[in-house]
Amino acid sequence: MMEFPPYTWAIQIETGDQD
Length: 19
Prior knowledge:
The protein is an all-alpha fold. Helices cover 53% and strands 0% of the residues.
């Protein structure tokens, strides 16, 4: 996940998947 841009982890946090 760490190689993805900020919007990717932001979306995953919103969907409840913080993997």
